[in-house]
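Quick start: load a record and inspect it. Here is Peptide deformylase:
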Amino acid sequence: MFGKNTKVDLELNRIVEQLIKTGGKEKILPIVQSGEPVLRQQTMAYNGQLSKRTLVKLIDTMHTTMLEAPGVGLAATQIGLGLALAVVEDHVRDDEDDPREIAEFPFHVIINPKYTPASDKTASFYEGCLSFDGYQAVRKRWLDIDAEWDDEDGNRHKERLHGWPARIFQHETDHLSGELYIDRAEIRSLTTYENLEDYWCNDPVPTEAAEELGFAL
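Running the structure step on this input writes:
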């Protein structure tokens, strides 16, 4: 649980409430794009600075914004908020031959997340980002990780993640330390969504990496 003696930061709580209101009735916030300083900042650990009511509204708004984008993850920095908080969600698709090892990844709120590699195996696939809109590039990531995070009630969780869920968790956790996927991507593979679908989904990319379509995080 978050510390019992933790006090709500009234000024931060007010700022977050104002941010939520910008989403209107649709609860859809604008997503910060690459170049905004907030995407390059180390976020502040969350330990109960927001009221429970405000936190619940923030999570709901982030979830709606993520799904509308559409994406499978959204970090607080991507809506301009420097808190160590993200939402993730993805579901199995119809393609049984998808090499990315997509698995059911139900909606999670991941607060103060961290991860460590659980093996030396890596996988390279196309990956996108809602804050680098319109492009994707091949990124090598750990295939298996030991993930840790707090939920919205302050309970600590530990779980071994594999394949695509592990990639999503790494992507969003990296956001909270100021890293974008493009920082360590195979730059020669950078492509627009349209060209990815037209040229690279079924053909080798000009790198040592694999060639499958990714999703924005």
